[in-house]
Batch of 3 targets.
Target 1
Amino acid sequence: MEKIVMRPIGYVKNDVENKKDVSWGDDASVIELQEEFYSGLAGLEDFSHATIIFYLDKAVYEKEKHLQRHPQNRDDMPLVGIFSQRGKDRPNKIGIISVKILSVSEKSLVVKGLDAINGTAVLDIKPYYPVYDKKDASVPEWVDRLMEHYF
């Protein structure tokens, strides 16, 4: 199998020190870029949202435990495969989420709703485009119940 190598473009700074499953909407995070990428933020201030791709370094994937499970290990959720949920313990430690942009500076991006802990490596930042990131998507009914207290 081909080995894929990536390097962080920056790191998350926030007050979240441990993995959690709820209340991410209360957290603002600063994404501090590596100096070589500072100018890559130009123009992002014109967008309301961005998609952040990050490395889940504290995730631990165990096939027997995570390939199929109840989301957030809740018994009131259906048993579904890992690719039908956004759980953090995944075959590849990649996190992705669209967040609200609070501010953009010369060296950093401040966002709300980033479900990453302090020190998490950021792999990429993309502007949120409604044409790509469809607003009219549908999800199973259990997703709404699961997300009641996430943000």
Target 2
Amino acid sequence: MKTDIILCGVGGQGILSIATIIGEAAMKENLYIKQAEVHGMSQRGGDVQSNLRISSNPIASDLIPLGGADVIISMEPMEALRYLPYLNKNGWIITSSTPFVNIPNYPDMEIINADLNKVKNVISLDIEKSAKDNGIPRSANVILLGAAQKALGIEYNKLEDAIRRVFGRKGEAIVEANIKALAIGKEAQR
């Protein structure tokens, strides 16, 4: 088993939480894991990217080469396209469909969607709307994780367990909100 994942988005969108949940699930499976440090501006509004590599065999490098990513999980559609050269030909993009317009020359969404439509395997969801409609506005990132579950090759119940461990100290309401978000994302991947 080997899965190379690029996590990307904008600071403050929950990229590190997704990485922590995936990492926790992988470690409980006794898999090897390497994560490159987060690149970009971690304060709210700056672009953020991280490499996460999971394998049943030892991993030599924490960086994913061009054409080597199996999955790009992106909290922002333009950021998904930024890392497209890293995606392998059979790889998956799981992205939010809602732009985070933080620059004056943000591309038109028709152009972004046309470029995303050129990719073989794409799941694009309005995670912000789904999160708000379901009363879990702070869990949009975990909806995206749920949609990525099959592409990641991690069993759904392992991600649920990881959410319980990662968010357990924050209380049962936070845990349940994120479990609900994961289920919404899983349903959307169909």
Target 3
Amino acid sequence: MPRHIRKGDTVYVRSGSDKGATGKVTKVLVDDNRVVVEGVNVRKKHMKPTQANPQGGIVEKEMPIHISNVSPLANDGKPTRVKFETRADGSKVRLAVRTGEQLGPELKKAKK
């Protein structure tokens, strides 16, 4: 199944405790269908002292959320659904349903 979200996309959180937040996707976990978004779903993790971190302590960490709970933002700043289109030259792109504009770079290059 193609992913409607890619690393570097700006997304809108549609549900959960951070509903309404926007942020940039830093990581896509393909096997788990989850994404990590900057500043969203931040949790505190208690770390034991180690040689690398002798102090230990409490660290705030961004945790993944399910990919179905986010939508990419169109160029007008509103969340949109995504459709995939294969063009006549053989290139494949993601399009915003709301505006019809291309989201990000081509997924598949044109055939020569």
